[in-house]
Design goal:
The complex is a heterodimer of chains A (308) and B (292).
Chain A lengths: L14 H28 L5 E2 L5 H4 L1 E2 L3 H8 L3 H19 L1 H12 L3 H12 L6 H11 L6 H8 L11 H29 L3 H9 L4 H24 L8 H7 L5 H4 L2 H11 L3 H28 L7
Antiparallel strand pairs in A: 1-2
Helix pairs in contact in A: 3-15, 4-9, 5-9, 6-9, 9-11, 14-15
Chain B lengths: L4 H32 L21 H7 L2 H32 L7 H13 L4 H10 L17 H12 L3 H9 L4 H9 L4 H17 L2 H6 L8 H10 L4 H9 L8 H35 L3
Classes of the chains: A mainly alpha (308), B mainly alpha (292).
């Protein structure tokens, strides 16, 4: 039998172990480099007149011409309005809802009922946007949709909702709430359960009612969580949910549904103007990173936590 | 603890409010379900509100007799199986190397992982890169480019860190190599996080249609969501219907009820795995949200 080696505090890993670890890291790192970092370098096409036949290295460089063309596109003002308008409204109306939902759910005494509500509320998150919109299309259908039948029974005219421009933004915002509120509440619920119960008892002793407890114990308890989620949400204002808007954007309503990402898909893939679309994508990515850094810095200056 | 009168009133109000929320959540899905099982030949679906009409499974049969749908389900199943398998393998191995304090690549890879979480090259350069590898119109193109996920790597890394290092140390002393430690010690003790990631990735691969819509143009490679995208975006389902009648099948279904059946079928796999994995994922994601 060999003598057990004396144990160092942290024995350095020997070379054969290093090799083994490297080997284990390779598949993941390779995929990361090729398909995450590759496209980052592929962004050069935004500065080229990219032709598939010439490839990344053979295409002619044109400086900022694509960006000039991009902002000359008469569609651009609409795209910017839709992207920012929709995202800001979603943020404004959709962000507080999960907090409210978590607070209401947290007050429920029956654990069993609480669990049922939670389970059901997550479910829509796992259904794709395409299916969600397909379902609501049916509910809102002109011929036999339940909503239009209701309108008729109230003596009103039928409405073909899915081709009404005025309906698109409210629908995008409300369906977003329908799909994600329960899911987004998970983190708040976890934060709520981690609040020290002694604080509530102390507050009760001090004569604080339920509402005062909410104001002075519960909300301060989940404030760090709120801040972090807000920081993570803000850079998203330039994204505006391509899955949702791509399906919603039929020809009748495109003026109010076209956002940067759907514009990128349509110009890039649809009409193969790769360089123009890549320029639009690059503008989006840059703004999103700038927003992240800005919000994170402000948050740290105000004494809150940051995400990095 | 005894409730005061005010508290009891609030409880009742709260329960009623949340019940309404749940009904609103469930109703659209329920509505689609009852239409999909209603016999359309017995009358139109225009009476249906809460309960189905005369029952039939013909809409489902029609979906299963439609080559596009069957093929779509097959492609999606392959995509989910291979996609989740590879992503789990790649990312869990990578995460394991990142918890080894003496691993030489650790800090470099850490930076690469975190930066990739916030910066992306965008869809067009991504498409061009995938294309340059010959992966467009290729089933692997729907799988391999997505076999890495920074968010997942960080969640798993944090989970692995919480496993007592003494377990690894004693295995090392017993002569286990790094892969053995990973596969025999780390993986079996990490079921909650592995289950969470399996659910997330499976749902992602199953639900994606945006990437698929530009990575494949051949109909044989369409995942089911892409088949549905065509159907849902088209007001008329003429092409689907003509295929049905061409086969001479007598079916008590129409394009609409068939669409509803297809929608239900595309949710079923999620409804099946969801309850099993649900107990893990709440724990799994909140764990990752705790800052180091």
């Amino acid at each position: 039998m060999t003598k057990p080696r004396p144990r160092a505090a942290r024995p350095p890993i020997r070379w054969e172990r290093q090799w083994m670890l490297l080997l284990m890291a390779v598949p993941g790192v390779l995929t990361l480099l090729l398909f995450n970092y590759g496209p980052m370098f592929g962004t050069v096409v935004a500065f080229q007149n990219f032709k598939i036949a010439n490839g990344f290295f053979g295409s002619e460089f044109v400086g900022l011409a694509n960006f000039r063309r991009l902002f000359d596109d008469p569609m651009m003002p609409l795209v910017i309005r839709n992207t920012l308008g929709l995202s800001l409204l979603k943020l404004l109306l959709g962000f507080p809802l999960p907090i409210l939902f978590a607070l209401l759910l947290n007050e429920i005494r029956s654990i069993r009922y609480k669990r049922v509500v939670q389970t059901v509320s997550y479910l829509p998150h796992f259904v794709s946007w395409l299916i969600v919109i397909g379902m609501f299309q049916k509910l809102l259908a002109v011929e036999d949709g339940v909503v239009n039948r209701m309108l008729v029974s109230f003596g009103m005219d039928k409405i073909n909702f899915m081709v009404q421009p005025w309906f698109m933004w409210p629908f995008a915002i409300l369906s977003d709430m329908w799909k994600e509120t329960g899911w987004n509440a998970i983190i708040y619920l976890a934060a709520l359960t981690s609040i020290n119960m002694d604080l509530y008892e102390a507050a009760t002793v001090d004569g604080a009612g339920r509402f005062k407890q909410l104001l002075h114990v519960t909300l301060p308890g989940i404030r760090p969580t709120i801040v972090i989620l807000l920081i993570l949400a803000v850079p998203g204002v330039v994204s505006s949910n391509v899955d949702q808007m791509w399906v919603l954007g039929n020809l009748a309503v495109r003026d109010v549904t076209e956002v940067i990402d759907t514009y990128v898909l349509r110009t890039g893939i649809g009409s193969t103007q790769y360089s123009l679309a890549a320029a639009a994508g690059l503008v989006k990515s840059v703004i999103s990173v700038i927003l992240l850094v800005t919000v994170n810095t402000i948050s740290k200056k105000m004494g809150e936590e940051g995400v990095y | 603890m005894k409730m005061t009168k005010g508290e009891r009133t609030f409880q009742i109000f709260d329960v009623i409010l949340l019940t309404i929320v749940i009904l609103i959540t469930v109703y659209p899905i329920w509505y689609i379900f009852i239409i999909s099982i209603t016999d359309v030949s017995a009358g139109s679906t225009s009476q249906i509100v809460l309960l189905p009409g005369e029952l039939t499974l013909d809409s489902y049969k029609a979906v299963f007799q439609n080559e596009q749908f069957v093929n779509g389900f097959l492609v999606s199943a392959i995509r989910v199986g291979a996609g989740v398998g590879l992503t789990l393998l790649f990312c869990s191995m990578l995460s394991y190397t990142l918890i080894q304090p003496h691993f030489i690549g650790r800090s470099t890879i850490n930076v690469l992982v975190v930066v990739a979480m916030f910066v992306s090259g965008g869809m067009i350069p991504f498409f061009l890169v995938v294309r340059s590898f010959g992966l467009v119109n290729n089933i692997w193109g729907l799988i391999i480019p997505f076999a890495y996920d920074s968010y997942g790597v960080i969640l798993m890394r944090n989970y692995f860190k919480g496993i007592p290092p003494s377990l690894q140390e004693s295995a090392r002393i017993d002569g286990a190599n790094e892969f053995q430690i990973f596969s025999r010690i780390i993986l079996p003790t990490s079921v909650p996080i592995l289950a969470t990631m399996t659910l997330f990735w499976a749902v992602w691969f199953w639900n994606d249609y945006i990437y698929a819509s530009f990575l494949v143009t051949k109909k044989q490679l369409f995942p089911v969501q892409l088949v549905l995208l065509q159907v849902i975006n088209n007001v008329s389902n003429a092409s689907l219907m003509s295929k049905l009648s061409a086969r001479g099948v007598q079916i008590r279904a129409n394009g609409e009820s068939m669409k509803m059946a297809a929608i239900m079928l595309s949710i079923v796999p999620i409804l099946i795995v969801y309850p099993f994995l649900q107990k893990y994922f709440v724990h799994g994601i909140t764990l990752g949200s705790v800052k180091e």
